[in-house]
Amino acid sequence: MVRVEWRDRVVVVTLDRPERRNAVDHATLVAVRDAQLAALDGGARVLVLTGAPPAFCAGADLTGVESGEFVAALTAVLRGFAAMPIATIAAVSGAALGAGTQLAIACDLRVATSTSHFGVPAARLGLAVDRFTVERLAYEFGASVARSMLLTADTYSAERLHLSGGVHRLGGLEEALVWADEIAELAPLTIAAHKIALEGVGRGDDLNGPSDAAIEAARRAAWVSADAEEGRAAFLAKRRPRFGGC
Predict the structure, then answer these.
(1) Residue 203 phi, psi dihedral angles, 5° rounding
(2) Average pLDDT, stretch 109-127?
(3) Phi (first) and psi of residue 223, to 5 degrees
(4) How sure is the predictor about 134, in pLDDT bands with cuts at 50, 70 and 90?
(5) How far is Cα 30 from Cα 196, in angstroms, rounded to an integer?
(6) Is 5 helix (H, G, I), strand (E, B) or coil?
(7) Rounded distance, CA 44 to CA 36, Å?
(8) Do 106 and 76 contact (CB within 8 A), yes or no?
(9) How far apart are the C-alpha atoms of 89 and 81, rounded to whole Å?
(10) What is the phi/psi pair of residue 45, to 5°?
């Protein structure tokens, strides 16, 4: 249902329901949330979310999707990706529709094959997505694309979204893993500080967003860290820094 593979400091989480084109049900979402927590407990520096062929995630498994249990699990996973203090990458190949697009935009970065496609066809099903998804869609893909996806159920190719910045790189899982390995070499406290600051952009007094105090604390933690000293020393010595995350 969900496979978790560790590659040194990178953890790869694979949705593995090919017979359902990786549509997520409650149990799958619980497993993804468990993988998020295990990644943090295990000291991962990057999490890569992907799907077993033939799709990234074709949406929600409509059996029981109306249940409060499913909605709560989906919310926990989406907000869980946003709250993780490490970089997260969605490696998309094939369809990322409905919950698939929600998962992709909850991640920090997106790598997708050029023929992959994204969309939120809720209007074809009589459903409505949550506020987090609406805001995230507008922030990550742009307000115009968000309006089109939500109000007309339009889909967009990865190639088209790459031109506007919604997809960061075109490529497959291998390209995503190479990028993940590169990110894992960067300073973890800097990543955490920048991520919490990005999560606060445009949120104002949203109680679900990070506080100004939390953002400032993360920034200060990076500035006074041993990693900051290591970064300066490596720069002066013209060598690659070795960040320990402290």
Answers:
(1) -85, -20
(2) 96
(3) -65, -30
(4) very high
(5) 24
(6) strand
(7) 10
(8) no
(9) 10
(10) -105, -20
Total number of residues shown for the chain: 246
Cα–Cα distance measured from residue 23 to residue 45, given in angstroms and rounded to the nearest whole number: 27
Whole-angstrom Cα distance, residue 147 to residue 144?
Answer: 5
The residue to which tokens 């520096």 are assigned: 45
121's tokens: 């066809």
pLDDT over 60 (residue 206): no
Distance, in Å, from the CA atom of 76 to the CA atom of 16, rounded to the nearest integer, reads 20
Secondary structure (H, E, C), 160-171: HHHHHCCCCEEC
Q: Which residues contact 174 (CB under 8 A, 6 or more apart)?
A: none
Amino acid present at 44: A
User: Could you give the domains of the chain?
Assistant: 2-182 (3.90.226.10), 187-237 (no CATH)
Provide the greatest CA pair distance for the chain: 60
pLDDT for 152 equals 98
DSSP 124: G
Tokens of 7: 């590659």
CA 40 to each of CA 34, 85, 87, 98, 213: distance values in angstroms, whole numbers, following the listed order: 10, 8, 11, 27, 22
CA-to-CA distance for 92 and 56, rounded, in angstroms?
A: 5
End-to-end CA distance of the chain: 35
User: What value does the mean pLDDT of the chain take?
Assistant: 94
Bond prior to 121 in cis (omega within 30° of 0): no
Distances (CA, A) of 188 to 169, 172, 222: 22, 25, 9
Report pLDDT digits (tens) over 183-204. 999 999 999 999 999 998 765 5
